[in-house]
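Input set for joint prediction.
Command: fold jointly, output tokens.
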Amino acid sequence: MRTAFRLLVGLGVFGLALGTVYWFLTSEVTGSVLLWSFGLMPLIVAAWIRRRLRAGGGSRPADRPDAVPSAAAGEVIGSFPAASAWPLFLALALVLAGAGLVYGAILLPLGIGLVAFAVLGMMRESRD
Amino acid sequence: MSTTVDRPAAPPAPHGPHEEPRGVVSWITTTDHKRIGILYCVSAFAFFLVGGALAGAIRVELAEPGRQLVTEQTFNTLFTIHGTVMLFLFVGGFGNGLANYLVPLQVGAPDMAFPRLNALSYWFFAGGGVLILLSAVAAAGGGAAMGWYAYPPLSGSGFSPGVGPDLWILGMALVAASSLLSGINVITTAFLMRAPGMTMWRLPIFTWNAIVTAMLGLVAFPPAVAAFALLFIDRRFGGHVFDPQGGGDPVIYQHLFWFLGHPEVYILVLPFFGVITEVLPVFSRKAVFNYAGFVMATLAIGALSMGVWAHHMFTTGVVDNPFFSAMTLLIAVPTGIKFFNWIGTMWGGRIRFAVPMLFAIGFLLNFLIGGVTGVMLASAPIDYQVSDSYFLVAHFHYTLMGGSVFAIFAAIYFWFPKAFGTRLSEAIGRWVFALLFVGFNLTFWPQFVAGLRGMPRRIADYPSGLGFETPNLLSTVGAGVMSVGVLLFLVDVWTAFRRREPAGDDPWGGSSLEWATTSPPPHHNFVTLPPIRSERPAFDLHHPELDPGAGR
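tokens >
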């Protein structure tokens, strides 16, 4: 976690510094904003990792070079879905909604309705 | 329905039955990262065959002056869809597929962090791919024909009035969304789901490269999607964002597009740098040379690649050429370090010239030519001279085809036994390599010559007597040789599935964790995890007589 934190902070500082240098060299707005936002994005994740580190997340078995496999025995890694038709359904609904934008307004409400249905379906399934 | 997964304890926890549908339904509803990875790779390869067929048509059209296989408008559609398909759907898709398949295995996790999101990212990719293909064929008279970077005003409703570009934009937006979801998954998995002892500094180089690729995607895709959305508004709803007559600025589109476009070429090559770094040590029977140097070089390439986008815009005259020249030249340094390390890895090793190794060496040779011509192009005065010529076409095909695609074949031959439990043929594989290597260089080396002689790209015909005939004829012959190589590869896959000779769990003597489980790996990947004491846990497991990490 500490390595990930350092990595993200380094990337963020690099982006902000590069954006600033670029701004002073060129005064060009688009590129400067893009570079600054490139700097800000990893810092958001870094801030989250810092919170976890403070809560004691730095001593996980995955971060200890001498940890043996049994160190994490029984640790619940997560809950993994076996199979789901919703991702396919949601992608098809989005394609339909997109086709609505291109081919005609009739498809659009249908597409949006199906997208909403698929999003709700995925959300409900993930609670199981 | 979901299964809660615990870390396997030692002795191994018995693996309970899991509820999965069977047959085709099991594939289209799967949330297993291995199946999604295979779906990605197979779809990407199917897109490669489509893109290759389009390239074949382009090469036949250009074989000699005066030949008109297709109309000029159709030719424009051919190169537009060829470029889009090969970059975003084949090389990008295959990279995502490899990351999906390998990252959880290499970090010792049972699956990706968000399996349903992972399935969603595949279906966005597939849906986007279909829309991009439809943009060429289902839009009579108006197929997408504006080049793969869709610059306005050419891509505006005035010059491209059909629905083709609209479908292309929607397809690209879906592919971008897929990349974002996939990136979130890869980063979360690698940061938070590593096995005990698998510290960040023991991650296989492929996983490191997948992390940096994912980060690049997360930063670079959103501006491009914004650009596509604004372009769509300009086209369909009368916007003027990129329309100079309405007070808009087409150069902003170029900034937004290339802020994706340049990191994208690293998104398309970094996973394959990772592949090469996995293949070379295994077939040199050594540990990777300068592990930390590889990681730092990957990070440096990733970071620097964010600051070079406007070297694609040198000739617009409105960007700071020295800044972008300098940044671009800087990228050559970490790339050079990687080359040094690859050679260092092979140096003094007992090299086995198996098929994955042949493709990896082919990658080194081709990519070096692509890289060196890239350094030439980083110099603005040279770029002014050869911009939009076949020199450029040859350069990026040397990086992406000679580089990434050769690495893709290395990856297929290397991990096929792991994914399917059976090996591809060494004998056929050597022929595939020979045909692709000779065919590739025969196709693209002459294009450097044609470019330096002044042949512009994206033209359906050219006059005779300017020195373009011989390079173009050679190129077309080379494309034919490559096609035979690809067909032979398909034969190889078909015969491998017919033979079904068991490959064993670790046919090559691999180093990373995926070689410590069965071939193919079980559901949720590992029944037991070996102790992880170095960056080569599978090697340590199979050679307990050696000190972990020895031989570095």
